Amino acid sequence: MEKPVLAIMAAGIGSRYGGLKQIDPIDDMNHLIIDYSVYDAVQAGFEKIVFIINRDIEADFRERIGDRLEKHVQVEYVYQDLDNLPEGFKKPEGRVKPWGTGHAVLSCMGKLNSSFAVINADDYYGNNSFKLIYDWLSNSHDDDKYRYCMVGYAIKNTLTDHGHVARGVCTVSPDGYLINIKERTRIEKIDNQPAYTEDGGTNWTFIPEDTLVSMNLWGFTKSILNELNNRFPVFLEDTLATNPFKGEYFLPDVVGELLKEKKATVRVLKSPDKWYGVTYKEDKELVVSAIAELRKKGIYPKKLWE
Between the CA of residue 221 and those of 8, 135, 218, what are the distances in Å? Predict the structure, then answer.
């Protein structure tokens, strides 16, 4: 049985940050958040990383990240291209936004032949989270259903003080399996409590602080690739008619469909870690101080890649 692989979704980095070179280091050794994720993954047992990137940032990405990391772990690249669509479909003139996380993972078709974990390139997930998902993937396989997993975080550990965020809010069974997941695109702190709105902020619904949310740390068997491939044309038919420039093929939506159809189960692995990310430029200071504290505790060495 092949060892699990880590796929890192990095195709949107350039658009979010105005160019890859503008991603700031988060410590005095010029490490990026992605360095810590790869380091944690390698420590957990992952030996191969597949970077999902946009061709437009390839040269910058290899220079800034890939060439350095491939000295310590096997690295491959796949490309999430806007023109990579099923036969009969065409990219709308003027669309620049990537097609979403489902399309990102679908871009790995033919490259991933084992179970794999998926993460965002610019989120810090914590070392415990990678251990949890690597161990689960190493000991699970499909049978009469697809057997997937995800790492869930308490919502209170995933918010920013500087604006709103999107999160996949999870309903979990008493025995630890995902019942459903709902993408909430505007969650923020209201009176220091998590809450979401669906009408631009007129009305807010509060969410218990210990509610588990997805931060796009998923574990799949390769069966997910065929499901993403088969469902993508249906998504495109609807989106090209209703929201051609911004519609996204969300990975959690496909997982939700598979759950409703009773084709898959998703084990929820609860992480004790705190998520960190730079959703807003003001978040960087918090990330820098958190990493400094983790280094002080001995969780990370001063130089990750000796």
Answer: 16, 14, 10
Q: How far apart are CA 223 and CA 282, in angstroms?
A: 39
Alpha carbons 301 and 306: distance in angstroms, whole number = 9
3-state DSSP helix/strand/coil % of the chain, to nearest 5: 35, 25, 40
Q: How many domains does the chain have?
A: 1
Taking Cα atoms as reference points, which of 288, 278, 268 lies closest to residue 179? Answer: 268
**Which residues on neighbouring strands pair with residue 118, listed in sequence order?**
7, 218
Domain assignment of residue 306, yes or no: no
- The predicted-structure confidence for 88-139, as pLDDT tens digits, reads as follows 999 999 999 999 999 999 999 999 999 999 999 989 999 999 999 999 999 9
Residue 104, domain extent: 5-296
Assigned domain for 259 exists: yes
Would you state the structure tokens that stand for residue 211, as one six-digit string? 């509610």
DSSP string, 92-129: PTT--S---HHHHHHTTTTT--S-EEEEETTEE--HHH
For residue 301, being part of any structural domain is answered with: no
Q: Is residue 147 part of a domain?
A: yes
CATH code for the domain in which residue 87 is found: 3.90.550.10
Q: Is the dihedral of CA 105, 218, 110, 63 positive or negative?
A: positive
Give the residue among 36, 61, 51 at the shortest CA–CA distance from 6: 51
Amino acid, res. 191: D
